[in-house]
Amino acid sequence: MVGDQICELPIIPNRPTDRILPKILFVWRLSHDLLLKNVQISSIKQSFGKGCLKCSGGDETAFHALKECTKACAILALRGINGSLLKRVHERCIDWLEEAMHLLDKNVFKDLITILWNLLNSRKNAIF
After folding, report:
1. In this structure, is residue 106 part of a structural domain?
2. Among 107, 82, 90, 88, residue whose Cα is nearest residue 31
3. Is the entire prediction scored with pTM above 0.70?
4. How many domains, in total, are found in the chain?
5. What is the pLDDT of residues 6-51, one digit of tens each?
6. Cα of 39 vs its chain's centroid, Å
7. Residue whose C-alpha is closest to residue 117's, from 59, 52, 65
């Protein structure tokens, strides 16, 4: 189900030779908890902090960075993604994405993926 939604995301590739579209790869990594965040980095490099650099509200996992961080919640609420999607507790990103897919209209779900993509890119750009 999620795979069908992911494959229909409108993406303009950077060049004609691109094989895997970036947003499809992003959602796949997000749903499988493979986005590298501070918690994973700190398990490799012991001196690296686990905390969220944006809100200092806990360990920075991909799920925290895109849903639980106060700055991410504010951005999602401004875009109309609030209510039960932000208030319910989910164990994994894939559970949250599946619930979002069931609750949201197809176009709104596509917008949510774009917002999450932009949130993650803004966090990466702030660090580097």
Report:
1. yes
2. 90
3. no
4. 1
5. 556 555 556 555 555 677 777 777 776 666 565 555 666 666 666 7
6. 15
7. 65
**Is position 15 within any domain?**
no
Q: Which domain holds residue 49?
A: 21-127
For residues 33 and 31, what is the distance between their CA atoms, to the nearest angstrom? 6
Q: For residue 90, tell me if it sits in a domain.
A: yes
Instruction: Specify the amino acid at residue 37.
Output: K
Instruction: Specify the DSSP element, H or E, that contains 27.
Output: helix 22-31
Half-sphere exposure for 79 (CA within 13 Å, toward CB): 21
Could you tell me the sign of the dihedral formed by the alpha carbons of 43, 46, 52, 56, in that order?
Answer: positive
Q: What is the pLDDT of residues 76-116, one digit of tens each?
A: 888 877 777 888 888 788 888 888 888 888 888 888 888 88
- 57-69 burial by CB neighbour count: b if 16+ within 10 A, else e? eeebbbbbbbbbb
| 87 vs 90: CA distance, rounded Å | 9
* Structure letter (DSSP) for residue 51: B
